[in-house]
Amino acid sequence: MRNKITVIGAGHVGETVAYNCARQGLGDVVLVDVVEGMPQGKALDMLQSSPVLGVDCKITGTNFYSDTEGSDVIVMTAGLPRQPGMSRDDLLFKNLEIVDTCISHAAMGSPDAILILVTNPLDAMCEVARRASGFPRERLIGMAGILDSARMRTFIAMELGVSVANTHAFVLGGHGDSMVPLARYSTVAGIPVTELLPADRIEAIIERTRKGGGEIVSLLKTGSAYYAPGMAVAEMVDAILNDRQMILPCSVLLQGEYGIEGVFVGVPIQLGRTGLEKIIEIDLTEDESRALVTSAEAVRELTDKFPVAVA
Fold this sequence. Notes:
Blueprint: E1 4-8, H1 12-23, E2 28-32, H2 38-47, H3 50-53, E3 59-62, E4 73-76, H4 92-109, E5 114-117, H5 122-133, E6 140-142, H6 145-160, E7 167-172, E8 180-188, E9 191-192, H7 199-210, H8 212-220, H9 227-241, E10 246-255, E11 261-272, E12 275-279, H10 286-303
Parallel strand pairs: 1-2, 1-4, 2-3, 4-5, 5-6
Antiparallel strand pairs: 7-8, 8-9, 10-11, 11-12
Helix pairs in contact: 1-2, 1-9, 4-5, 5-10, 6-7, 6-9
């Protein structure tokens, strides 16, 4: 029996996630959305590409959560996108109700699924999903660091004129302006980027990474990024369903790790078939540790604003 992957939200991010999962043959895909006809049409279009791709899987579009029952992985992408001039924090109350409602319905029919959150503000929405689902932290993971690290890798490759395949980068913290890109742990073919670039160019890359999502929003005018987020989610789904035990930066609920308690924040984790297999605690300098704690507190400020009904 093939794995079952549900993607909630048939917008640009959701359809990209669904298509990448199907294209890689990760399992049967269910695309669910409240808009009648849209998930059905997009799913049918994707399904008709399968003969060319040579992939056998079912791709179903639906408006009903009953079709998502028994999912192995549920990806939450539904929500309002960022608009120019809007921070991720501005999205808090707009998307809180959407995530709460969708996850409550989906978790009911798939009590053993692993949840991947994409909706912004990402780290705060992970907490909404945790409360709505009642799932343990091992099965509720936010997609953040993979995307932010991919952006940093792209900018490093552009700066040095090298292949992105040679680059590696680590970005920790909340998925927003308070994220913590770690230049010391970023390399090109194993060579620390700090030995290849002057401090001012590294700082420019870090700053562009922090504002990577906003840069795309300002260019698109009426939407936000979806190709890179869609690929990042597919990598997580692959790591889970194929039990790859990959070390990836993801947002998870910390319970004392890095001196942080009770808040979702991006850290390196080992990702496998049961979800969060292990949190990797790397050595940080005092400045890096302080920045990570500050980032976590920025997330906590958002979750402290949640209405009692979400508690």
